[in-house]
Design goal:
Layout (H helix, E strand, L loop, with lengths): L5 H22 L5 E2 L11 H6 L4 H18 L3 E5 L2 H12 L5 E5 L8 H9 L2 E5 L11 E7 L10 H13 L4 E4 L3 H9 L11 E5 L10 E5 L1 H13 L6 H13 L3 H20 L4 E3 L2 E4 L1 H10 L8 H16 L1 E2 L1 H4 L8 E4 L10 H18 L3 H8 L2
Parallel strand pairs: 1-11, 3-4, 3-5, 5-6, 6-7
Antiparallel strand pairs: 2-8, 7-8, 9-10, 10-12
Helix pairs in contact: 1-12, 3-9, 4-5, 4-8, 10-14, 11-12, 12-14, 12-15
Bound molecules: pyridoxal-5'-phosphate (PLP).
């Protein structure tokens, strides 16, 4: 095992950032292909940046965010937080007291770690379900959480979404929706309604997922609950600062469903190419992915022996993709606890116009390289901790 804990994951991330720096220094930004679907963009005009230096700026951007944010998420009141995880923590701090319970429904494991971690901090018990028959809301429940689209882009069925919300509301329990990517994926690709339209009391989305915004968390929902969450966010410094709010407003204004819709047909083409040679790929709404389990199965099928764990395999392949092909995937650069599955998002701006055959050839070569390297633990280690 190479990557065993959060510290190893932090070191792995530092290696990836170092490789990115080297690639940028050698060949410039155009040598990198970010297929994470997380853009981290920062759109701002000179005039807007100048406003940031005065006290006027925050007043203006926060007001504009109320308008843009409500259009994007619905709801009565909007709150900007530093990250989606910050919004989840602030909500759980505000709504789930010690000794109460939090029930979470999602389409597929794993859930985002910020949800159980936040429950642990407040001393609330926590349970998560992917089977609606098993989903339950014990008597001491203070909050129900629904994930609209998981980290791996598994989208909840709208009827189940509604069912969970109704179950919670029958018992007067508020519902928080983790719609990090779902706020766009569900609506643009699956024609689902906004979480607030489905009755969610609070929703949080990530402003850099599948939209040209900065990494940040945008919340909306019932005004009384948003106020409570806002108090906690301010008390613990979880709120977004004015520069982030400015870029969030422009990210929302520049978001279109077009890239997401275009990616749907391209992913079918990409998938068929990969499928001819490999068993490990599966489709996502806007691309393809390989899970930890299927990468290991693929090695078994080919009788390739490795001492690496499933997770290590994902990390190793992600580092090969990055170092030798400039392809950025989440396992290389992700925060500790992020999903280790390798996802290629074809709606990402860097590949939206790229020839699919060219992308296939790069990915194919990276896999061949991975098959070789994973048999040598020392060499694998040297790349992961580059
Ligand atoms: C990305 C994601 C988060 C966390 O977003 P951060 O910006 O890393 O805080 C939470 N939940 C889901 C489902 C996600 O996909």
């Amino acid at each position: 095992m190479i990557v065993n804990n959060s510290l190893d994951e932090v070191k792995k991330r530092e290696s990836a950032l170092k490789i990115i720096r080297e690639i940028i220094n050698d060949g410039g930004r155009d040598s990198l292909y970010d297929v994470t679907g997380l853009s981290g963009g920062f759109i701002a005009s000179e005039q807007e940046l100048n406003l940031l230096e005065t006290y006027v700026g925050p007043a203006i951007f926060e007001d504009e965010l109320q308008i843009a944010g409500k259009e994007h998420l619905g709801g009565e009141k909007v709150l900007a937080v530093n990250r989606t995880s910050s919004g989840i923590l602030a909500s759980i701090l505000a709504l789930a007291e010690k000794g109460t319970h939090v029930s979470h429904f999602l389409a597929e494991f794993p859930a985002h770690p910020s949800i159980p971690r936040s429950c642990k901090i407040v001393g609330a018990s926590y349970d998560e379900f992917i089977d609606i028959e098993k989903f339950n809301i014990p008597d001491n429940t203070s909050l129900v959480v629904v994930t609209g689209s998981t980290m791996d882009h598994k989208v909840i069925a709208e009827n189940l979404f509604k069912e969970v919300i109704d179950m919670a509301h029958e018992r007067d329990i508020p519902v928080l929706v983790d719609d990090a990517s779902g706020a766009r994926l569900r609506t643009a690709v699956f024609n689902q309604r906004k979480a607030t339209e489905l009755g969610a009391d609070l929703v949080v989305t990530s402003t850099d997922k599948l939209m040209p915004g900065p990494r940040g968390g945008l919340m909306s929902g019932r005004a009384d609950l948003i106020d409570e969450v806002k108090i906690k966010a301010n008390q613990f410094g979880l709120e977004a600062q004015p520069p982030l709010i400015l870029a969030m407003v422009n990210g929302i204004r520049n978001y279109t469903e077009e890239n997401l819709v275009n990616a749907i047909s391209r992913k079918d083409e990409f998938y068929s190419l990969l499928r001819e040679k490999y068993d490990m790929f599966e489709k996502t709404p806007t691309g393809v992915r390989v899970s930890e389990e299927s990468i290991k199965n693929q090695l078994d099928i080919l009788n390739i022996e490795t001492e690496l764990s499933q997770k290590d395999c994902c990390f190793l392949w992600a580092m090969i993709l990055l170092k030798d092909f400039g392809i950025i995937t989440i396992p290389a650069v992700g925060m500790p606890g992020a999903s280790a599955s390798i996802r290629f998002d074809l709606s990402a701006p860097d590949v939206i116009d790229m020839d699919i055959n060219r992308l296939y050839e790069m990915v194919d070569s990276s896999i061949e390289e991975f098959f070789n390297l994973c048999q040598d633990v020392e060499k694998s280690k040297n790349l992961i901790f580059y």
